[in-house]
Amino acid sequence: MTGSDARPRGDETLRRLWIRDPLAILAEGAGGGIVVEGSRIVERVAAGAQPAAPVDETFDASRHVVIPGLINTHHHFFQTLTRAHPLAINKPLFPWLKALYTVWDKITPDAFRLATRLAYTELLLSGCTTAGDHHYLYPKGLEDSVDVQVDEARSLGIRAFVTRGSMSLSEKDGGLPPECLTQDDDTILADSERVLNLFHDAKPGAMVRIGLAPCSPFNVTKRLMRESAALADRHDCQLHTHLGETLDEDAYCLEMFGQRPVDYLEEIGWMSPRAWLAHGIHFNDDEVRRLGKAGVGVCHCPTSNMTLASGQCRTCELEAAGAPVGLGVDGSASNDSSNLMEGVRHALMINRLTYGAEAVTHLDALRWATEGSARCLGRDDIGRIEPGREADLALFTLDALRFSGAHDPLAALVLCGAHRADRVMVAGRWRVVDGNPVGMDTRKLREDHGRLALSLLGGA
Ligand code: ZN
């Protein structure tokens, strides 16, 4: 199979590609594969059947397990520059953050661009086709961070959900970050409007969407939270923030605002399906019920939660209450890898520890990383393999030693620890072929990114 990158666009006839006879596929009635036309899936082919209409190309998927492209709903790309940093390892959230703030203010525009490129590439290689980032760091020189993230996503061909994050409450006003890492509310709101006007595409099939993401209750003002919600309504975009990550945050909210985090969320007007929360761990029964009723999404970040010992997300109760549950790798300083397939495995494990071995299956963990994540992002055009949805696919082989002897191919992906896709398709175009990102020199990227990261060793 060759050449689907050359597929015509616009008014020209769209080429039809049959991904045929997969080893296994996470889709109903598609044992014979699927047909992709342009950027979309147009047909599921039953086992032993032929497509309904002639195809232009065929890809033999008999060595591949095919799943919907994974969707990452929380990350901080810049943190790839401070993985396993000596100032931060072995610390819980607040001391970890305070240590890293002293390093992050030294990130240069060049380093930030490469951090973005590296994170997108890592995600893509793990089978991720829609990469969300929560970028809240705007020291001098990084004012156009959203522009850089959109630009890099377009170069790589990955679907992006870039959230314009922010911090406006510094130490002197009772917040956590130093003043040099914050911007004032008006600057943030003006730039939010700018990037929404420039890049946000609310249409089905969008390759770039923008969301608004004040960082967390302990580093932004209530005014910014409220006005971001109003701006999101005007531009039809999603809202994102960290909430319920640690017990320290509960204590902070009670002391600073006299209320628990979910009461705070309600007061600032965020209890709606527009909002999805990173972590969402420390909610009581009543709060779970209220979040579910409002349709607020929760991005479960299992690897990060275990690394920082933040706690165990109440995924099953939240889903049962009606809240979309998705997955995220979280920033690379608290999850030192950006591998979403690894996150799927970690989600299975930590949730089994919480709920028992029979209550959470590999299919549940995969559902969170695909359909659940899509719902968090407010999208119904990605996240499942079915006609009408975008052709975002991750194809894994079971050729490595770790899979030898495995029987159920879909379960093997999760239980044996798949972590690198053989092929990845985004919007009908192959972006990873034979385990390598198309058009990317990963060796050079590793060298350049690593070199720039060295300058951030700081006072360690
Ligand atoms: Zn985070």
Topology record:
Elements: E1 16-20, E2 24-25, E3 33-37, E4 40-45, E5 57-60, E6 64-68, E7 70-72, H1 93-104, H2 109-125, E8 128-135, H3 145-156, E9 159-166, H4 185-199, E10 208-214, H5 222-235, E11 239-243, H6 247-257, H7 261-267, E12 275-279, H8 285-294, E13 297-300, H9 302-307, H10 315-321, E14 325-327, H11 340-355, H12 362-376, E15 393-397, H13 409-415, E16 423-426, E17 429-433, E18 436-437, H14 442-454
Parallel strand pairs: 1-5, 2-6, 7-8, 8-9, 9-10, 11-12, 12-13, 13-14
Antiparallel strand pairs: 1-3, 3-4, 6-15, 15-16, 16-17, 17-18
The protein binds zinc ion.
Named CATH topology of the largest domain: TIM Barrel
Q: Please tell me what the overall shape is.
A: globular
Oligomeric state: single chain
The residue ranges in which pLDDT falls below 50 over 5 or more consecutive positions are: 1-11
Number of helices: 14
Based on the coordinates given, report the CATH architecture of the largest domain. Alpha-Beta Barrel
Q: What strand order characterises the main sheet?
A: 2-6-15-16-17-18
Summarize the entry for a quick read.
The protein has helices at residues 93-104, 109-125, 145-156, 185-199, 222-235, 247-257, 261-267, 285-294, 302-307, 315-321, 340-355, 362-376, 409-415, 442-454, and strands at residues 16-20, 24-25, 33-37, 40-45, 57-60, 64-68, 70-72, 128-135, 159-166, 208-214, 239-243, 275-279, 297-300, 325-327, 393-397, 423-426, 429-433, 436-437.
